[in-house]
Amino acid sequence: MVDSTNRQTLRLLDKSQNVSERSLSGADTKEFEDELDTANGINIWQTAISLSGVCAGLGFLAVDVLVVSTGWIGFFLFILLYAALLYTSIILGRCWNMVRDKWGHERHPYGAIGYEAFGGLARSLINILVAAVCFSNAIVVLMGFSEMTLTIGGAALEGTLCYWPLAYGLVICPFFWLATPKSFWWIMASSFFTVVMSVILVITSVFVAGSPTSSGINATEEVPRESAFFHLTEIAGTVFWLMAQHGCIPTLQQDMQQPQGFSKAIILADLMTLFLTLPVMLALVITYGNTLTNVSGSAIVYSLLPEDALKKVSASLIMVHLTGAVLLVNNPLFQYLEEVLHIPIEFSWKRVVLRSSVLLMQIFVQETVPHFTLLSSISGGFLTPLISFLVPCLFYLRLRKTYQPEPTKWSMLETIACVVIIAATPCIIVAILFGTGTAIASGRTAFTVPCYVNATLAGL
């Protein structure tokens, strides 16, 4: 792999020598710049690890509990959404491959796809939508730092949830100043491997707990049961928040050595993520069984585990994972804002000020709604289904007519799948928002007041 990259770089250096020896046309110069940029990109495995490093982690430790608590219907919903999101990721990657020769150096490629599909208005709308989704999703990731701190500290840190966001913001802010995914893929790799180790520790801790009562769950205690519909909407919202990283996909694909191989990368990423979450679900079923029907919607796996070293080390590893996740999720937002504000690609004080300001705004929202599962459900319930379900299907059907006019044996099946997903999107949005809104109105969530109203009460 390294030899292949070196050979490609040497070939491009030879070509650059030829550039100095003769005058190239504008097209030749652009071709050379594109090839040089591609040679410095990330490969398929690096792309897969980066994507899995975002998707696997804290969110799945929440959705695992929700899926097990709803039984087979929850598992079926999880797998159905998972497969549909994988498919829309693949067709979004195909869309970028159709238009990338024309838009190779575009700073927000999802918007370029929209332009080629439906024109300038679509480009503007999708850029705004991607920015909004990245902003909201990153807030939930940032919330994870505080949640893991309380998991590690236990009772000693009770009531301090609101004090941690700004502290962690100061720590991770310098990482925000890095350019694009190929500049920090090593952080993404660390994020993935820390999740792997954390999952191993979680599974071990689940079996060490041995019984529901030893981990704080009383199987005979009468606990007010939450609506199964509420749990199902939470599953849908959390899965969308986790797996629907479609705003990042074209940006990450643009940084690849072989963008045409993105389908392989996303399939590898989703398989790796699935192989991390299914064992946790199985361990929960074996150990806790039907007792999880009484857990609250705010529960994650850590809330079921005993206060031991396995739990605390696992939570510490998840904090490393969150660093890589928040970088990748925020990057399309940064690229969009920097182009709108005419901030150069090269590192400058303007980049530092802009990205630091965005982080401060995200921390403010986090302090307003300081609860992880509620934020993830809301974030995944409205804007994310649009950008991950509806838009990729619409763009793909439109671009396919232009770039692939000859139908294939799969064309009809793909059309049916896209139409079904398009029709299902508004139903999913309404269900998630209704379930979450009803839970908030009836007081069945952990939300109380913003941190700046009452820091102690908000953290309870």
UniProtKB/TrEMBL annotation:
UniProt xrefs under InterPro entries: AA_transpt_TM
Localization in the cell: Membrane
Protein name according to UniProt: Amino acid transporter AVT1I-like
Lineage of source species: Eukaryota, Metazoa, Echinodermata, Eleutherozoa, Asterozoa
Keywords, in A-Z order: Membrane, Transmembrane, Transmembrane helix, Transport
Predominant cellular place of this UniProt entry's protein: membrane
A single cellular component GO annotation: membrane
Pfam families cross-referenced by the UniProt entry: Aa_trans
Keyword flag Calcium: no
Residue span(s) of domain Amino acid transporter transmembrane: 41-424
Domain of life: Eukaryota
Organism annotation: Acanthaster planci (Crown-of-thorns starfish)
Keyword Transmembrane helix belongs to the record: yes
